Structures are given as structure tokens and as C-alpha cells.
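S.,

As promised, the zinc ion run. Input:
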Amino acid sequence: MILHLAIFLCTLVAMEGVGFLAHKYVMHGPGWFLHRSHHEPHLGVVETNDVYLLVLALVAITLIVLGNAGHDPLQWIGAGVAAFGIIYVLVHDGIVHRHWPVRPKPRHPYLRRLYQAHLMHHAVKGRRNSVSFGFLYAPPVRVIKRQLREMRESEARVEDRRQGDFLDEARG
Ligand SMILES: [Zn+2]
Ligand SMILES: [Zn+2]
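Predicted complex:
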């Protein structure tokens, strides 16, 4: 039982890492066409981004079914994946984006930090140069602010260089 609980908790923690990587390199990478709906003004209750949640649910269910069919301890890994999904929906959809009729205000410092960090993720338009890809852990707000500033500065440098090249070409 202790071992199972440990597997469950480890999966939950590991899922934050998986989520971070998936958000940064898949959702803001080749999977942007699905995630994009989440970075645009809302049109309806569901968005194409929910496909990712569906995939998460399928993975969790498959693991739980396999575990219950005798492949112990897959059901505990599945439970960890499911718990991550549930917490994500509660925190991300409920508290940060307030998609629900009841709109809880984040009072707890931890929730406030998640809230602010995720708003900064949404402060960057488009898929590139974003910050704060985590869901259940966020670095301190000042760290994210610095990252955001550095991103903007490097983007401005690239733009300057582009304009410089253009002028050079125009001058011939
Ligand atoms: Zn995003
Ligand atoms: Zn969001």
C-alpha cells in the first residue's frame, strides 16, 4: 500500500514535468494548432485545446484498466495521471481562467502565484517567446518578469538586425 501511494505521488509530481515539456515543446510547437484556441478570446464553452485533456483522460483510463486487468501497479500510475488532470482542471480552468459560474478568488499565496504566473503565460501573444509553461508549479513572479523582459529584449534585437539587413540591402 505504501509503495502504491508512493507510485501515485511520484506520478503526480512527474506529470508536472511531463506537462511542462508538453506545453512548451508540443502545444507551443507542432501542436499549436490545437492549443492556439486557448490563447485567443473565448468563443464557447469548449475549445480545441481540450483535445489535450481528452488525451490525458484516455491515458489515465488505459493505465487504470490495464492495472486492474493484472498489470499492477499501472492503475496507480493511471490514478496519478488522473489526479494531475483533475487538479489541472480545478486550478487552471476554475481558478485561473474562471470558466465556471462560481469564480473563486485565489487567496492562498501558492494559488496566487500560479494565477499570476499563468496570466503572464497568456500575456505573450502567439506561440513563440512565452514564459511559465508549468501548471502546478510556478517560479516566483519576479523571475518570470525577468524572463519576459529578456525575451522581449532578444526579440527586439532580432528585429533591429532584420531592419539593419533590410537597410543594407536597400542601400545596395
Ligand atoms: Zn500556452
Ligand atoms: Zn491558460
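Residues 2-171 form one domain. DSSP finds six helices and no strands in the chain.

- D.
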